[in-house]
């Protein structure tokens, strides 16, 4: 609580104390500072520029939460901590130095800045966003989905298990196979049934697909490690499939149970789609 009649510097110090030592330029203006006063304090070492439009107050030795919040403030009002940085905030992985991951809704938004890995998402909604330690952040469920793209399979699995220990709801079954495990199962199915070997994790029209037979224009997505990811992921998958089909590719989605529990039927379906004789 800032006492009545507090000076501008006292108001700024109180705000910084609530925000892990960082404030935005907009907040400094609201506290009563003009831009020339901000620059004067920066020259005097009372403010330290962290990102464009974001300052550390008093000293530049920020904690991990301070660095994370500074990056979020630098990316605008709707920005949220995401991916590996969000996982660290939720204590699913260990914090480490490097770029801070931030997601903004839509395809536009702020320009990229040094030390910030900016992600733009057309599917980020208010249901995917919460706050932890005063930092806007993706929910544990959204964080776990995004972490797949920035962590190894082993680290992702440990994060899922850690979420279970902490009682965080992610919608992911910790006993579900990793991506590499499911790849091995599927490739084994193809080999046993003498199907052509597909490309793995190939790029098609900006998307990374699980398995691709490029000549036959067939894509297979295996969903065993994506258990119950929620409405946002459901929409993402369908938008992706629609775009791939618009490019002339057939898309099949197979679950882990189908691959492991009914391999003959899966092989028969693939054989027909690939026009391969039995």
Would you summarize the structure shown here?
The chain is α+β, with helices and mostly antiparallel strands and 278 residues long. The protein has eleven helices and twelve strands.
First-residue to last-residue Cα separation: 76 Å
Question: Biggest β-sheet: count, sense, barrel?
Answer: 4 strands, mixed
Strand content: 15-25%
Count, helices: 11
Please supply descriptive tags for the structure shown above:
278 residues; alpha+beta; 4-stranded mixed beta sheet; 3-stranded antiparallel beta sheet; 11 helices; 41% helix
Task: Explain what you see.
- With 278 residues, this protein is α+β, with helices and mostly antiparallel strands.
- Helix content is 41%, strand content 21%.
- The chain has eleven helices and twelve strands.
- It has helices at 8-18, 25-30, 35-43, 64-74, 83-89, 140-147, 153-166, 179-192, 231-246, 256-261, 263-274, and strands at 22-24, 47-51, 54-57, 80-81, 100-105, 116-121, 129-132, 135-138, 199-204, 207-213, 218-222, 250-254.
- The strands form four sheets. It has a four-stranded mixed sheet, sandwiched between helices. A three-stranded antiparallel sheet has the order 1-3-2, with helices on both faces. A three-stranded mixed sheet has the order 4-5-6.
- A hairpin with a 2-residue loop joins β2 and β3.
- α5 packs across α6 (140-147).
- The longest helix is centred in the C-terminal third of the chain and has 16 residues, at 231-246.
- The protein is elongated and about 80 Å long.
Layout of secondary structure:
Elements: H1 8-18, E1 22-24, H2 25-30, H3 35-43, E2 47-51, E3 54-57, H4 64-74, E4 80-81, H5 83-89, E5 100-105, E6 116-121, E7 129-132, E8 135-138, H6 140-147, H7 153-166, H8 179-192, E9 199-204, E10 207-213, E11 218-222, H9 231-246, E12 250-254, H10 256-261, H11 263-274
Parallel strand pairs: 5-6, 11-12
Antiparallel strand pairs: 1-3, 2-3, 4-5, 7-8, 9-10, 10-11
